[in-house]
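Chain and backbone:
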Amino acid sequence: MAVTSFAYSTFNDPKVNESSPRGRSVRDRLVPPMGGSVLWGWIGPLLVAIFGAILRFANLGYPKAIVFDETYYAKDGFSLITWGVERVTIKDADKLLIAGNTNIWQQCTQETLDKCASYVVHPPLGKWMIGIGEWLFGMTPFGWRFAAALIGSLSILVLARVARRMTRSTLLGCFAGLLLALDGLHFVLSRTALLDIFLMFWVLAGFACLVVDRDRTRERLVDWYETSPMSPRGPWLGLRPWRIAAGVCLGLAMGVKWSGIFFLAAFAVMSLMWDFGARRAVGVRNAYLGAFTRDLPSGLVGMAVVPFVTYMATWTGWFATATGYGRNWDRATSANLPYFVFDSMRSWISYQWQVFSFHNGLETSHPYMSDPWQWPLLLRPVAFYYEGKQNACGVKDCSEAVLGVGTPVIWFGAIAALIALVAWYVASRDWRAGAVLLAYAAGWLPWFYWAIADNRTMFLFYAIPMVPFMVLAITLCAGLIIGPATATQNRRTVGAAVVGAFSLLALINFWWLHPILSADLIPYTEWKARMLFDKRWI
């Protein structure tokens, strides 16, 4: 796990830039070797992910309550695994569920089935994932939070592995995974049955697949370079399974929330730009024309057709049943097969338009709403749960709270790291800095449009897809601070100490916040002491 494998020596050495053939072989320039042990490359990230999983699964069923928007998604998940679509529940459904009674559905006759259909404004995949936990472990707080905890834990592993691949350092990969494990917002959403943790996971998984595709593509280009005569446009590289896998993941991201489409668009452009760069680096004369003619067609399959088909597949329950909202099943089945398909698609498109119109007009005020410019500064977290108790913790006034807020050391460190990446990218055009900045922008900038043009109701936890890329920004800067393998021992020792100190601060900060992230029973004065911005956090 030594940092000697870290490949940042390529950043500032003109002899080994991708556009220069001097200094190293073409293979080493295009695909720097992965240093360190392959075994530790898995053991290290797995240990960090297990640490994160222990934090997330510990006492997962507490609080025994329906927390914040769990009131929608826990019941929708249960409805999907029961009926295949979301259905309307009775008025006191939340109280019944907490009491262990799952008889929560509004009664309908065959003639009034359409009145049982629930109008929902998010695609179904995230709720299906919540429902799987409920199917496995019952309609309990642990059951409806299980999938979020599992996916949150797996995202730590994915981030550690992709950071390792980007930096060629197992130690830095584990550092990235540790920071994600210690982020407060990621921790809270991993223990709550909301959709955003699933969106974050599929976005991160799509990004990770594209990073692997980048390496595989360059390996194949180098194989061609070493064994075949040079051609003006270079070779066709096939359908590229890792890019198809990325398309599936990003289609699933859209199947959780529509905002996944911003990442799909950004990553599709990023992947094509990587293709341009790879062909130029290997010496193809007409690199741009080669990328457009050889890579773009398969790219459209992987990053347009595949995501669309995947997104449509997440609606299978709606198409296969008669009771989905706006389904118009009777009209569709009264005609032959072509008209059945036509009427079904027409009803589905009409439903999608209603959802789009709903989101565009969503201006309802909420005490915990915030604008996107406030998110990086953690100015307005979301109180997911709060209960005051008397004489239950050794003093008169006690508190239990779940506050949806990031770990300040990580979030404020990310602001500095992202600024550094901007300067770094301008100076070096390093692909890692550009990829992280693009992903962060795809998760953040689109919300400014709705904040300005539509005054839409938004919350801090909408920023969770940005968090892995904030951590990657810190990790890339940590690599620069430690320095390349050719740096002096003193430089690397000091750099490692600085990075280690940051990790320790993040751990301490998370430990300090943990009672108000996990509904621990503490004196009210201790809860109040953890409100960093006082009234803004209350």
